[in-house]
Amino acid sequence: MSYPPFGGAPGFPPDPGYPPAYPPQPSYPPSYPPSYPPSQPPYPPSGPQPIGFAGLSPAYPTPTGPGYPPAPGYPSAPPSDVSGYPPAPALAPPASGPSFAGTAFAVSAFSRPPPASNPYGQQQPPYPAASYPTGPSSQPPYGHPPPSNPPAPYPVPIPSQPPPHHHQPPPQHQQPHHQPPPPQPQPAPRSSPSSLSAATKQIASMTITEQRGEGTLRSAMKGFGTNEKAIISVLGHRTADQRVQLITTFKTMFGKDLIADLKSELNGHFLDLVMALMQSLRQFDARELRRAMKGIGTDESILIEVLCTRTNSQIAEIKQEYSKMFKRDLEKDVVSETSGHFKRLLVSMLQANRDESGTVDVRKAAAEAQDLYKAGEARLGTDESKFNQILAARSYPQLRATFDEYRKVCKYDIEQSISREMSGDLKAGMLTIVRCVQDKTGYFAEKIYKSMKGLGTDDETLRRCIVSRCEVDMVQIKRFFATHYKETLAKWIQGDTSGNYRRLLLALIGEGH
What we know:
The chain has 21 helices and no strands. By secondary structure, the chain is mainly α. It has a domain at 199-266: Annexin (Annexin V, domain 1). Helix 7 packs parallel to helix 18, helix 7 (268-277) runs parallel beside helix 21 (499-508) and helix 16 crosses helix 17 (424-452). The longest helix has 29 residues, at 424-452. It is elongated.
């Protein structure tokens, strides 16, 4: 179905009132001048420019006519000769005879907004270009280059140079400039609870190296087989007191008896030497004395070596340890196992009453040298009591002076006279004292030498001398050995021992690697 067009088409009467007729509006549409753009005086006009538009040349004239407010000329792009502004592209002039919409668009889009009108109806005079106000934040007029040397808005003070500083050392009574930082307060040491056992406190005070010893021993005996080299590395490089501590700390850390583990893993002379090392020196001497007197017979050489070579304090400790370990009195056991003047000599040594001062009385030495001569070489028979009285009570320095004086009154030295006048264990005991007075290092070096000389080896004597002297004078013993026997002690040990037993002996004398 189609509808005929409106507006009085044939066959349709006109619709009254439709379309509505709009009343004419005044001044709409505006009347244009006969020619566009109209002829006007040249723009910009000669005279002062409006505020802010000094130096601008319009690109288009501003249309004028009825209904158009006066507007400043369209500002062109900044001139190309002004520094700091890029050249602007030229705008093409509009086509002749623009429509109303084009004209409105040109006016609204390409012209600056008109300045605010004077509310009092008077046009405000513009500022002259030469008197454009400037200030701290002002800019030069649009289209003019900035001044080469703009005045500073505010005076800037120039900092003065500080006076040269001459270092002067502080007076001696003053403290230096750089003081060390004050000491930080140290935390108070933690007191160990009274409930901790002695073994736990001992472990806490031990070094890491000492604590590793227990772990090394445990690893050496754990599982199948035994690492004897690890045992030697621990026991051969510690003191007697440290080795004794290993027993307690080992049981504390692992709950096992170290002595029992060593006995179950080792054997032979190596085991005997290890057991000797796992005791303090006083315990070792006490055990050796008990072994010398236990059972049938007595080993007098051990009694002589221990009792005639130890100091007063060492003998006192041995007696206490002997009583503690075996619940027996050492002096009574010695009396029951020995006899005669030899027994009297050992009892005298057990009193631990030798003079240990370093003073020497020359007159007394000369007098006692005469007494020794009269008690031996100057008479038939021998007064052993006089020898016992002097040799058991005098200090080593005093006895050396006496022996020197004795050589002046007798054609024999004291050793020769004792060998001539005495015999048996008494002679051995007296000679031991004399040799220790003269050179204790030489005495033990000779004992070690005789233990390895000839066929076989006296392992008990060798072991006893090495264990008892390795922490006392082993360096001097090795030097004496090399000087008097023309070979080193290490070489003798290597030739007479073997295996782990030899390795541990070498470690104890400081030759192990």
